[in-house]
Every structure is written in structure tokens, then in C-alpha cells.
């Protein structure tokens, strides 16, 4: 079958999408494995790009379309003097017409600091900080009374609002504690040029002999307010500067407190003070209130945030007792706006904050335009987060505790919250992490984006996501050198009538387009499995309570594959990756089969006890992929293939003559890496208001190594040549090398033969990355009594490749391992032995609902067709 370039204008497909007359035209796309692709994509539509892993989907969307759009934007945005000498990255494509400003959300994630919160990452915190910084009032933590904070602008606004000619006094309030030492108070007043003290209408001269004794008598009269009279004059335009000078003197003397007193209109002898406080102690109880600035809301800045946890929200896994996880100083957290404190907002869920914001907008309608606009923008982002099924997350939740699907949806919400007509959105697997029932909601969000004039192009494998698109492109027919061709490009109605791999798969699912498993991996049983038949040995968790998760007990079979399913926010990742995994590792580190968790560890991990944990010797969290996504890690390093290749090169005659060791063939070693880029192969140019631009190293041109190291060759190849080989090519070259050939064979059997050994981990899809790490585990000699935890291992995999993943699982089980998997893919669910289904987020008083049992009995009840 020939996979020729597709031209929509020639085939007449443009007219099949009503109202579309603007096209994105691509000519000669040759990036990575793309085979001179020519195609036209309708603008202003929802466009799905699908195909097997390594077929060229990311190469087309991100490395060609997005990169070329970014190139043209950078050329226009970067001043010529800044761009001088820079080689801006371009795509390998002959021509692209119809490009516009592009926003990309790919599968890679920037390094995450443990301090970063969900609110900061999603763009919520900037809005919340603005509102509470400028519009909230301070509540004293000592007595819970409101403490008004004012600026000089507030004071002058009050002054200018007085009727011209009004008699006014500028007073410096004197705290009761200072009355104890009258002599010191007298000295301070004289130094500040304050010569009179007032008590209502009574005056006491500071320099008088009776001043000290008079102050002593006032100690027993708490109802009397004592103030220093700084100045007295009449209000008017010509006394503004005099007012400023007097106010500044009063603020300096009274540590941030000043009173402007005017005569009562009905009683010419009664002075009515208006208090303004910019800093200092609480007037009611004397609580020491630090001054609040914009930095006071920056928990990640040194010297700010909570003093106890240093802005992290927790200490050794336990919630901070001072800020309760909200990360800021209690005085800042006590600030209150429209009935809610900042602490309540930061510790609340998206749903809670949305209700608070809606109520605030109702009160502000027609008043305070600035506040109304700020709340409107906050409300808009909150609604998008709810639409992408993140309403259950608390704003202060640590970003590192979120699943990959939650992270992806938070990024999407952040990028699309202010959609602009004509913008080109490039998204990678927006359905990731979503239960089949929730995919439709995500696609509805993206469809609304396209209806507002944006063009949305996304990579996905979910049948519900694909069939929701207006137009579909499929790349293939295989992976790597076997892919790179445009197999199909048509409106969805025409695409589903076609004969491509994806079209045939969706046709086999029927009208529901749910992820029905077609076949089980060879050798697995088709018969129903009862709970008692799964395993003779079980382990269990008791008293689980963390984030939104609350379970009295949950059990898992040893030596079997258990899938944990449930809708977004039900606690799947929390159960396996925040509770069970860390707690088991803690117990195993004790090296005592009778050991148990201490009270401190129980609080840290959110579990009271784990039974039968001694059935395991190791716990491996394969879902933890954020830590390996970086420029320095490659397929070769992650699969443990680089070490034997380095050893092989160090044993060559050329290497021994030069005295080169294995370290010389590592780009992470000073002995072998390029001194210019330190083995990274590229550098980042950071420019003001423009995203960093990556540029190849001028010395090694991206090869990472010192030039002299490349003189050493094995069978005519230097180390760079060897690492540039695909896994399939490397297997042919190194098949007879012990250990190295075995590792490469496992990678090839996992369907990854098309990947090159030097491909960076931050360019791999989640599915590819997890399979690389899985292959390394299979190659290890000791896998028995190992517990493997996976977080959506099918992500990034085409339906035709999921069976390969199930084969890997089967091999691990044969070796005596136990597998726990978080999944939404019915093919993976069907091939499992046991299902643990968690319910939706409960209220704060109840437990998370739990349904456990065989695949056949549980999966259909929780939304999976098996």
C-alpha cells in the first residue's frame, strides 16, 4: 500500500467542513522521520493527529508546525542586536503557509521545585495574591479583630475629602506600655518635636514637671486614649504638604499608626479621630504585626513565607503546624476579603474558591470596577479548571504530588484561559489522565476554544477524543523508519470510512467509541477470575487518609497485576504514589520484617499500618518520570545501555594507547564531555519577555563530546556514531556482546526499535519513556519480590501497541513481581488480574467509595467495557 502525500484542495475535502476556507498548508516536511509530507489542515477547527508511537506525530505538530511558528515570532520579537549571532531554531520543511501565533503544550515538563504549588503552576496564585494584597483587610491573629492597613495615598484621600477649612489634628497614638516609663516617653516626645499630649479635650505639656506623674496615673485608666499632638491646622489645598510632613512624623513615632481628628459637627468640643495604620502592633491587643509588602506573599523568596516550613507547606512530609500547609506567615494568611481569609482560600479546593469568587462578584456588581475585573479574571480561570476536571484540587497542593494527567490538564487550562482569535494551539494528549466518561468534557472545552476563532491541533489516541475532532490526520504506517508518512487526512466523517489502522480500530468499537479491548495478550485466560483465584498471598493498607483520599482498608494480591481505576480526583495517584509506595520503601529500609511505621511516619505517609509488606524486597515507581526528563538523560542512559557501550569503546586498541577509560566516553564526565556546553550539546539564550531559545553548541555542534574522543572507533564508528544508531540498528551491531545485546533485544521486543540511543528523554512520549524504563527492569537479573507501580503506562501508545505493554507486564509477573497500575485504558484493564475502583471525591466527613474484585465483575460497573 502506497502512502502518498495528501492534498486537500486536489481531493476536494476542503468543502467537507462547512465554513472553512482558511488552510494551514505544509510542503516538504522532513523533520526527524517525516517523509517529505505535503498536506493542508483546516484552520479554526478541532484537528486530531494520531498514529503509532514514533510515527511522526510530534515531529509534525511540535517540531515542524509549532517550531516554525515560534521561529517567525522570535524573529519579530527579538531586537536585532539581541539576535545577532544567534541561530534561531527552524524546522526542516520547504514551506508553511497560514501560520499564526502558536501556543504549545507538549509532553515535557520543566523541572519542578518542591516549593511550587498547584495554584502557582496553574496561574491562580497571581490573581489571589493581587486581590489579598490590595483589597483585603488584616485580621489580628491575637484577638481576631480587623486591622486596617493604609498607605499615604489612603490618608491623603481622606484629607482631601474633608470640607475646606475643617479644623484637623494630626495625632501620634501612644501605647499603654510606654506610659510605664514616663521619663523615657518624655525624652522621645521632645526628640520628635511633639510638645503636647492630648486626652480627648485635655492637653498636657510634655516639658511640664507634672508630665511623668500624669502618665503614671493614666496607666490605670485603660479607657483613655493618649496621643501626641503632632500638628493642628485647617484643611485645604495649601496645607497638603503640611499634612504629609505631620503624618510622616506621627507614623515614625507610633510605629506605623496615625490619627487624623476633626471636630464633631454637632459638638464643637468633641474631637473624632480617624485611625490609619501602615504597620506596627494591633491597637486592640498589641500583637506584633509585621509590615506587609508584595514580597510577603512570595513564599518561595528567602526570608518571606512561613518561618517554620520556609514556604514548603510541610516538614518531612508532615503538614506545617504554623501555616497548616498554606506556606505564608499567619499575619498574611489572616487577611480577609469578602468573608474568607487568605488561609481558607489557599487551603480550599478550586470548587470552594469558585463559590467564594462568584459571591464576591455578586456583591461587587456595579461597584469597584478594579476589584470586579480582578475577580472576573479569577472566576474565568477557575471555571476552566473545573471544566478540565480539576475542581477537587486544593490551591496549596504541592505540584510534585500531582499525577502526569493532572499536570497536563493544569497546563492546558493555564494556556487557554484567555483564548485569542487566530491563535494556533498545539496540545499533546489532552485526554491523558481522564476516565473515559470525562474525555467528552475536555473535548468540549477545546471545541469552545475553536468556536472562538482559535485553531486547536492535538495529538491523541483516545477514540472519544479522535471522534470529537472535525478533522483527523494519521501518520504511520509504523514507527521510526517505518513511519513518517501521511496515511490519512480527512474530515472525521470521511476518516472513519477509511482503511487506516486507527480507522479500523475505531470502527471495531462500534458507535459508543469506548476503549473496548479487542484481544487479550497471547496466553492469558478468557475466563472470569474470582478474587480467591487471583493470589494466595495479599497485602493491605489500613487507615489511609491523605489529600482527598480516605479509606479504612484496601487489599492487593501479591504476584498479580492490579489496576486502580476511578474518575479524576478519586485518589488513585495518592493511594499508590503518595501513600503506599513511600510507606513501603520506609518499611523496607528498616531491614526488619517485624518492623512497623512509627507514629511520625504514619502521619507523614497518611496510613496507620501496612500488613504483609515483608512479601517484597523492592519497590519501583515507574510512574515517577518527571525526574528523568532532562537534557542529560537519553534512551541509552535510561536503559542502562550506555555503560556497556562505553566499556566496549574503552577496550579498543586506540583507547588503550591513549589511556582512555570508560569515563572518557561519557558526556556526563569531565574527561569526555565538551568543555563548552559541558556535555549538554546546546545552550539556552534567555531574553527579556521571550521564552528561552535553545541553540546548538558552537564547539561540538550538539555531539556533546570532546573532539579527540571521537578519534576512537569501534567497527568504523566513533561513540557519537554508535549512539546515533536506532535500537534496531544497534542490536544488529552489538547482538553478540554479552549483556548489551540482551538489553537491546528487550527494547526491540518492547516496540521501541525505532528510537535512537541518543534521543533525549525530554523528547520521548510518556508511553515511550515508561517502556524504556520497563525494559531496563526486565533486563535486571533479580525481579522477584519486586512491587512495580505504574501511572498510566498506556499514555502515548496507540491501541495496536498496548498489547506489547501487556506482554511486558506478563513477563514481569512470570519473574515473581507484583504490579499496581493506575489506568484508564480498557485494554490494560482487561488484561489485568484484579481491579480496585475508587469513587469520586467524597465530602469531608465520609470515606472514598471502594469497589474491588475481578475484572469481569468490577470493570463494567465503573465504566469500562471488557
Sequence-ordered SSE layout with sheet pairings:
Layout (H helix, E strand, L loop, with lengths): L7 H4 L11 E7 L7 E6 L3 E5 L6 H21 L2 H4 L9 E5 L4 E4 L12 H5 L1 H11 L3 E2 L6 E2 L4 H9 L6 E7 L8 H10 L4 E4 L2 E4 L5 H8 L8 E8 L5 H14 L3 E8 L2 E11 L2 E2 L6 E2 L24 E2 L2 E2 L10 H4 L2 E2 L2 E2 H5 L3 H15 L4 H19 L16 H13 L7 E5 L10 H13 L3 E5 L3 H5 L3 E6 L8 E7 H4 L5 H9 L21 H4 L3 E9 L2 E9 L3 E5 L6 H18 L9 H7 L3 E3 L6 E4 L13 H4 L3 H9 L2 H6 L23 E6 L2 E7 L22 H5 L3 H8 L5 H10 L16 H14 L6 E6 L7 H16 L3 E5 L3 H6 L2 E5 L11 E4 L1 H4 L8
Parallel strand pairs: 3-21, 3-22, 5-20, 20-21, 26-32, 26-33, 28-31, 31-32
Antiparallel strand pairs: 1-2, 1-4, 6-7, 8-11, 8-12, 9-10, 9-11, 12-13, 14-15, 16-17, 18-19, 22-23, 24-25, 24-27, 29-30, 33-34
Helix pairs in contact: 5-13, 6-9, 12-13, 26-27, 27-28, 28-29
Amino acid at each position: 500500500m502506497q502512502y502518498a502525500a495528501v492534498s486537500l484542495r486536489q481531493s476536494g475535502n476542503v468543502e467537507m467542513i462547512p465554513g472553512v476556507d482558511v488552510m494551514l498548508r505544509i510542503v516538504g516536511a522532513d523533520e526527524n522521520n517525516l517523509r517529505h509530507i505535503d498536506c493542508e489542515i483546516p484552520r479554526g477547527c478541532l484537528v486530531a493527529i494520531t498514529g503509532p508511537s514514533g510515527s511522526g506525530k510530534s515531529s509534525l505538530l511540535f517540531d515542524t508546525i509549532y517550531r516554525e511558528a515560534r521561529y517567525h515570532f522570535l524573529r519579530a520579537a527579538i531586537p536585532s542586536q539581541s539576535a545577532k549571532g544567534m541561530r534561531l531554531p527552524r524546522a526542516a520543511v520547504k514551506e508553511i503557509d497560514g501560520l499564526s501565533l502558536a501556543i504549545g503544550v507538549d509532553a515535557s515538563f520543566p523541572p519542578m521545585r518542591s516549593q511550587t504549588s498547584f495554584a502557582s503552576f496553574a496561574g491562580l496564585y497571581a490573581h489571589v495574591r493581587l486581590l489579598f494584597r490590595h483589597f483585603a483587610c488584616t485580621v489580628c491573629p491575637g484577638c481576631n479583630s480587623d486591622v486596617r492597613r493604609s498607605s499615604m495615598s489612603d490618608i491623603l484621600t481622606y484629607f482631601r475629602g474633608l470640607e475646606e477649612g475643617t479644623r484637623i489634628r494630626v495625632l501620634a497614638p501612644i501605647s499603654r506600655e510606654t506610659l510605664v516609663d514616663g521619663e523615657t516617653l518624655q525624652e522621645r516626645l521632645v526628640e520628635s518635636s511633639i510638645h503636647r499630649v492630648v486626652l480627648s479635650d485635655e492637653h498636657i505639656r510634655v516639658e511640664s514637671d507634672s508630665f511623668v506623674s500624669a502618665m503614671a496615673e493614666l496607666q490605670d485608666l485603660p479607657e483613655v486614649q493618649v496621643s501626641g499632638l503632632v500638628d493642628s491646622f485647617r484643611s485645604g489645598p495649601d496645607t497638603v504638604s503640611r499634612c504629609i510632613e505631620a503624618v510622616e512624623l506621627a507614623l515614625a513615632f507610633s510605629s506605623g499608626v496615625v490619627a487624623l481628628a476633626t471636630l464633631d459637627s454637632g459638638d464643637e468640643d468633641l474631637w473624632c479621630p480617624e485611625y490609619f495604620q501602615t504597620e506596627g502592633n494591633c491597637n486592640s491587643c498589641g500583637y506584633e504585626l509585621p509590615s506587609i509588602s508584595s514580597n510577603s506573599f512570595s513564599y518561595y523568596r528567602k526570608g518571606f513565607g512561613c518561618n517554620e516550613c520556609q514556604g514548603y507547606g510541610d516538614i518531612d512530609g508532615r503538614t506545617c503546624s504554623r501555616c497548616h500547609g498554606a506556606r505564608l506567615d499567619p499575619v498574611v494568611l489572616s487577611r480577609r476579603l469578602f468573608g474568607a481569609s487568605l488561609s481558607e482560600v489557599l487551603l480550599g479546593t478550586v470548587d470552594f474558591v469558585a463559590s467564594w469568587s462568584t459571591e464576591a462578584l455578586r456583591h461587587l456588581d456595579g461597584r469597584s470596577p478594579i476589584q470586579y475585573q480582578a475577580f472576573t479574571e479569577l472566576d474565568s480561570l477557575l471555571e476552566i479548571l473545573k471544566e478540565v476536571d480539576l475542581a477537587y484540587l486544593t490551591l496549596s497542593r504541592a505540584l510534585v504530588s500531582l499525577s502526569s494527567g493532572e499536570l497536563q490538564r493544569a497546563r492546558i487550562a493555564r494556556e487557554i484561559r484567555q483564548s485569542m482569535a487566530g491563535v494556533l494551539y498545539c496540545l499533546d494528549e489532552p485526554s491523558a489522565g481522564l476516565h473515559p466518561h470525562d474525555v467528552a468534557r475536555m473535548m468540549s472545552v477545546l471545541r469552545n476554544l475553536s468556536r472562538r476563532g482559535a485553531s486547536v491541533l492535538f495529538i491523541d489516541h483516545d477514540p472519544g477524543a479522535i471522534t470529537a475532532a472535525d478533522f483527523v490526520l494519521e501518520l504511520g504506517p509504523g514507527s521510526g523508519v517505518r513511519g513518517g508518512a501521511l496515511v490519512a487526512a480527512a474530515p472525521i466523517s470521511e476518516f472513519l470510512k477509511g482503511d487506516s489502522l486507527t480507522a479500523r480500530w475505531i470502527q471495531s468499537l462500534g458507535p459508543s467509541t469506548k476503549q473496548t479491548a479487542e484481544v487479550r495478550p497471547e496466553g492469558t485466560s478468557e475466563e472470569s477470575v474470582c478474587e480467591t483465584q487471583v493470589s494466595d498471598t495479599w497485602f493491605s493498607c489500613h487507615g489511609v487518609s491523605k489529600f482527598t483520599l480516605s479509606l479504612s482498608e484496601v487489599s492487593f494480591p501479591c504476584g498479580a497485576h492490579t489496576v486502580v481505576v476511578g474518575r479524576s480526583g478519586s485518589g488513585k495517584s495518592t493511594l499508590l504514589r503518595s501513600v503506599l509506595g513511600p510507606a513501603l520503601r520506609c518499611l523496607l529500609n528498616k531491614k526488619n520484617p517485624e518492623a512497623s511505621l512509627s507514629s511520625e511516619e504514619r502521619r507523614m505517609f497518611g496510613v496507620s499500618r501496612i500488613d504483609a509488606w515483608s512479601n517484597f524486597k523492592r519497590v519501583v515507581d515507574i510512574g515517577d518520570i518527571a525526574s528523568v526528563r532532562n537534557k542529560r538523560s537519553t534512551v541509552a542512559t535510561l536503559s542502562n545501555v550506555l555503560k556497556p557501550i562505553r566499556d566496549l569503546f574503552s577496550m579498543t586498541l586506540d583507547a588503550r594507547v591513549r589511556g582512555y577509560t570508560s569515563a572518557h566516553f561519557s558526556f556526563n564526565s569531565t574527561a569526555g564531555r565538551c568543555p563548552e556546553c559541558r556535555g549538554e550539546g546546546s545552550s539556552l539564550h534567555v531574553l527579556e519577555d521571550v521564552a528561552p531559545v535553545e541553540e546548538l553548541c558552537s564547539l561540538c555542534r550538539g555531539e556533546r563530546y570532546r573532539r579527540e574522543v571521537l578519534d576512537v572507533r569501534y567497527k568504523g564508528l566513533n561513540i557519537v556514531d554508535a549512539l546515533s544508531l536506532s535500537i534496531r540498528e544497534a542490536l544488529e551491531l552489538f547482538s553478540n556482546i554479552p549483556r548489551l545485546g540482551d538489553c537491546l533485544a528487550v527494547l526491540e521486543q518492547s516496540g521501541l526499535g525505532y528510537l535512537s540511543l541518543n534521543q533525549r528523554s525530554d523528547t520521548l512520549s510518556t508511553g515511550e519513556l515508561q517502556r524504556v524504563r520497563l525494559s531496563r527492569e526486565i533486563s535486571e537479573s533479580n525481579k522477584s519480590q519486586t512491587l512495580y507501580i505504574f501511572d498510566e503506562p498506556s499514555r502515548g501508545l496507540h491501541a495496536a501497541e498496548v498489547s506489547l505493554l501487556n506482554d511486558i507486564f506478563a513477563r514481569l509477573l512470570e519473574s515473581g513481581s507484583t504490579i499496581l497500575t493506575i489506568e484508564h485504558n480498557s485494554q490494560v484493564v482487561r488484561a489485568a488480574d484484579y481491579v480496585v475502583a475508587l469513587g469520586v471525591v467524597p465530602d469531608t466527613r465520609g470515606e472514598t467509595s471502594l469497589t474491588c474484585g475481578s475484572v469481569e465483575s468490577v470493570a463494567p460497573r465503573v465504566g469500562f467495557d471488557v
